[in-house]
Specification:
heterotrimer, A alpha/beta (about 250), B mainly alpha (about 240), C mainly alpha (about 300), B: about 240 residues, mainly alpha, C: about 300 residues
Chain lengths: ~250, ~240, ~300
């Protein structure tokens, strides 16, 4: 099994000096799905932004055998497809079709080929009927899938999704789950939704204050760090105090 | 909201919707120039210009009452200036102001209601408007809906919290905060867009599809409108 | 302040289009040097921000509320040329999508608000924004931007022959001053809030530097002041001036066409509209040629 992502000794600081990532080591094998868990601000998003060079820190990152550097950025960005948390930021063109064609056009494809790829990707995502719609006419679930289509149209080998279930209602989440489980690419899913993650990922990494403090089978990680919703403490009894005030 | 409704209307289908945006833009300009140079008391001419617009609305499958109602948005301005002009003795101008500004507003409304704005912007670019300006307008329109929704939420939230707040100073400060926060969110949103663009291979030039194709029917349409207008106005 | 169509007389709106189109072209060339296409989303989103910000009510007096117009704010945050372009896009969309302002009158509205207004809004900030008079500079800039755009608009209307009784003019000028004060107060207050949120939001202008913008701003200020004075003179004198300007403009537009058959058209209307259209096409052609010439010069 080859590794499609290899990260060694990755560190990153913000301009004011705060350490966002501290000596992170990480690998992703071909076809594997890994979930990244951790508190807000623990470095998960900062980490994934390093993978395609949007942020650059110190350390070595190798994507599909290519070392990440200024000269390999274009190729690497074609190999890693990233879906961000805010779909409105990702769907910035006037129509869905134009947006999904953006990636292939940037890869240098002709207009005709780019449109073909875009249509295929949209079909794959179940959105063949919304080609000419403006992004603000789509539901949250449709927007998420359109963003995913925009990335699939570039034919990537790795998919990275940042909080993909945000704003999605249960049916939309199920839809997305089905779509993702049928895709062959290796995936990284950053999420708080451990049920969603467990359905797709076999392995998980846990981030805490910029460090990857734990790695292993997802159920074990969830248990170890008490990272599921059923781990919520008993709610204090507020009935008495409410009666007293009113 | 106004632009939401127009956006919906612009996505319908009709012979007018199907015309190339360039044809519609040119026809609009000719109409506006002809209207601008029509004399205020040339009732027949004005009536025919109005009839042309009504015909356009009907062909475009749009609700005539709704459209004519929305064109009334210009009336507060034109009536005010009309009254001012009338009071200063210039009756001709007063009447001309009101009737002609209403018709020109309706004409613009008709074009907007039959052309999705991004397509219209593409038409302007093809007619020579600088690309940078067209791109800015394109992104502005794309995010107008999102940002105006946010602003509405802020207003609602502020109203819920302030209710009886009488102190002008405090409300002023709150409004300032709302604007500043809106600015910040917009700024960070733009950063997010930039990141998404980079992640999909953006490297300097914004790529775009070129879907516009000027057909004979578009040329005939423009010539017909221009011809009609010239005919109408020599009455 | 958005002038609808059919308020301005033909010579006036044609002249304003003739002034605004090349001016916008120059600003586009200038902005293209400062920005890359990657910053277009920022400009677009900021334009959307201004639209939304204009909806927020600022209580300013007994039962009245003011709104931010945004020209000066954009200038202090994005820089003058980008701000002018964003304002141009805003005004164009306001005219098209919201029917706020005319299409033929776009030249006038863009010149008044996006060019003169933004540049005058920036001028004090550029000169004094880096020092201890920063707050006063921001206030003055926003104040001037409204005074200049409003007086230019009023002058254009008066020169077009819209007769307004003296008291009406004076009341309008008074209202402009009040709006200008409101804009200044709101702009300053928002800029201060922005600096607290993130100091990089607001620019730190260098006192020296691009002279072109300073000159343009100064010129806009002068034009606006002249407009202000024009607007406050007696309507009679203004009408006489308007007739003079109108005649001059009409002669300029007609002159090259006088030799052709067009001049022999019986219908005075037809002559007018053909001249108007021909004038527009001529301007369009000149701008296109000028644009190509400028870009050839730049790349040489």
């Amino acid at each position: 099994m080859t590794n499609v992502i290899e990260v060694r000794n990755l560190s990153f600081q913000y301009e004011d000096g705060t350490k966002a990532l501290d000596n992170v080591n990480f690998t992703l094998a071909e076809g594997e799905t890994v979930a990244l868990l951790g508190a807000n601000g623990s470095g998960k998003t900062t980490f994934i932004l390093q993978l395609n060079g949007i942020l650059s820190g110190q350390g070595q990152i190798t994507i599909c055998g290519l070392p990440l550097g200024k000269d390999t950025l274009r190729q690497i960005r074609a190999k890693i497809g990233m879906v961000f948390q805010d779909s409105d930021e990702q769907l910035f063109m006037p129509t869905v079709l134009e947006d999904v064609a953006f990636g292939p056009l940037n890869q240098g494809l002709s207009e005709q080929l780019a449109v073909e790829r875009a249509k295929l990707a949209l079909e794959q995502a179940g959105l063949g009927h919304v080609l000419d719609k403006a992004p603000y006419h789509l539901s949250a679930g449709e927007k998420r899938r359109a963003a995913l289509a925009g990335v699939l149209a570039m034919d990537p080998e790795i998919l990275v999704l940042d909080e993909p279930t945000t704003f999605l209602d249960p049916p939309a989440q199920r839809n997305l789950l089905n779509l993702l489980s049928n895709l062959p690419q290796a995936k990284i899913i950053v999420t708080h939704n451990t049920r969603f993650a467990s359905a797709l990922a076999t392995r998980a990494g846990f981030f805490d204050k910029g460090r990857l403090v734990g790695e292993g089978p997802i159920d074990e990680i969830v248990r170890r760090y008490e990272w599921s919703y059923s781990a919520l403490p008993e709610a204090p009894d507020l009935r008495y105090s409410a009666q007293r005030r009113f | 909201m106004h632009h939401v409704l127009l956006d919906q209307w612009s996505h319908r289908t009709s012979p007018l919707h199907a015309r190339d945006p360039r044809a519609k833009i040119v026809a609009l300009i000719v109409f506006l120039v002809v209207l601008a140079t029509t004399r205020a008391y040339a009732w027949l001419t004005l009536g025919m210009e109005a009839a042309l617009l009504v015909a356009g609305v009907l062909i475009a499958n749009l609700p005539i009452g709704g459209l004519l109602l929305r064109a009334m948005a210009v009336l507060p301005f034109s009536l005010t200036f009309g009254v001012v002009s009338w009071a200063a003795g210039d009756h001709v101008r007063a009447i001309g102001l009101v009737e002609k500004s209403y018709l020109s507003t309706a004409a613009v409304l008709l074009v907007i209601a039959t052309t999705p704005l991004p397509l219209l912007l593409g038409g302007f670019e093809a007619l020579g408007i600088p690309r940078l300006l067209v791109l800015i307008a394109q992104f502005l329109y794309r995010y107008l809906f999102v940002v105006s929704e946010q602003a509405q939420h802020s207003r609602l939230a502020a109203a819920c919290r302030q209710g009886n707040q009488q102190h002008r100073r405090i409300r002023f400060k709150a409004a300032t905060g709302a604007v500043a926060v809106l600015f910040a969110r917009s700024y960070y949103r733009a950063e997010g867009i930039h990141r998404a663009m980079m992640a999909r291979g953006f490297h300097g030039k914004l790529t775009a599809l070129k879907p516009l194709r000027f057909r004979t029917s578009d040329g005939l349409f423009t010539l017909a409108i221009a011809g009609l207008l010239i005919l109408v106005s020599t009455q | 302040m958005h002038i609808p169509d059919n308020f301005l007389s033909t010579p006036v709106w044609v002249s304003m289009d003739a002034i605004a189109i090349p001016a916008v072209g120059i600003l586009v060339k200038r902005a293209s040097h400062e920005l890359e296409e990657g910053q277009v989303p920022l400009m677009g989103v900021m334009g959307a921000f201004v639209f939304a910000a204009q909806m927020i009510n600022f209580p300013v007096g007994v039962g009245t509320s003011g709104h931010l117009l945004g020209g000066a704010l954009l200038a202090c945050t994005l820089g003058p040329a980008p701000a002018a372009l964003v304002m141009t896009a805003i005004i164009a969309l306001q005219a098209l999508v919201f029917q706020d302002g005319g299409v033929l009158a776009l030249g006038a509205n863009v010149f008044n608000m996006a060019i003169a207004g933004v540049l005058t809004g920036y001028l004090p900030f550029k000169l004094w924004g880096a020092g201890k008079h920063r707050k006063k500079a921001i206030f003055a800039g926003a104040f001037l931007s409204v005074v200049v755009s409003a007086s230019l608009a009023l002058s254009e209307l008066l020169v077009s022959g819209i007769r307004m009784a003296r008291p009406v003019i004076l009341v309008s000028l008074g209202l402009f001053l009040v709006s200008a004060l409101i804009e200044a107060a709101i702009t300053l207050s928002v800029v201060q809030a922005l600096e607290k949120l993130n100091p990089t939001f607001v620019q730190k202008p260098q006192a020296l530097g691009t002279r072109a913008i300073t000159w343009l701003g100064g010129a806009a200020l002068v034009a606006g002041t002249v407009g202000f004075l024009l607007a406050s003179t007696a309507p009679d004198g203004l009408e006489r001036l308007g007739i003079q300007l109108g005649l001059t403009a009409r002669t300029i537009i007609h002159a090259p066409l006088a030799d052709y058959a067009l001049g022999s058209f019986q219908s005075a209307w037809l002559r007018r509209v053909t001249a108007g259209l021909a004038g527009l096409i001529l301007i369009y052609g000149i701008c296109a040629a000028a644009g190509r010439w400028i870009s050839r010069q730049r790349s040489a």
